[in-house]
Design brief:
By secondary structure, the protein is mainly alpha-helical. It has 4 helices and 2 strands; from the N terminus they run βααβαα. Helix 3 runs antiparallel to helix 4.
């Protein structure tokens, strides 16, 4: 029997500069996505313990150790994409995010496919226009 993990969250907060490198020149800021809501502002995170930032190899070791066949990688900061007010910016940010996910994880191992946000967001924006 194959075991699939459908909730592999990655710590993309710690990788803001890496993700920003995939943005168009002049728009390469480390914080692409807004806060989730009023409960996730920085001042509430002051006493929170660090969660680490597993690499593709760390994920592989975890999957091997637990007997999980593969995991779908989900964004953390990227979950706030729906709070971006400018549709064009949201699409560009998602493309940068997806490219970073591919380069950092999927290219290293096909057992870690990321959830792609550009496709979902583009479909939502088309629907919202009507």
């Amino acid at each position: 029997m194959q075991i699939i993990d459908a909730g592999g969250h990655i710590n993309d907060h710690a990788c803001g500069e890496e993700i920003a490198a995939y943005m168009p020149k002049g728009n390469q800021m480390a914080k692409l996505f807004p806060e989730f809501d009023h409960l996730h502002f920085r001042y509430l995170k002051q006493n929170r313990r660090a969660t680490g930032n597993p690499s593709a190899e760390d994920w592989n070791q975890f999957l091997d150790k637990t007997g999980i066949s593969w995991t779908v990688l989900y964004p953390t900061a990227g979950l706030a994409v729906g709070r971006i007010m400018a549709p064009d910016w949201a699409v560009i940010a998602c493309r940068a995010y997806n490219t970073w996910l591919y380069e950092k994880f999927l290219k290293q191992n096909s057992r870690q496919p990321p959830l792609e946000y550009t496709h979902l967001l583009t479909r939502f924006l088309r629907w919202k226009r009507y």
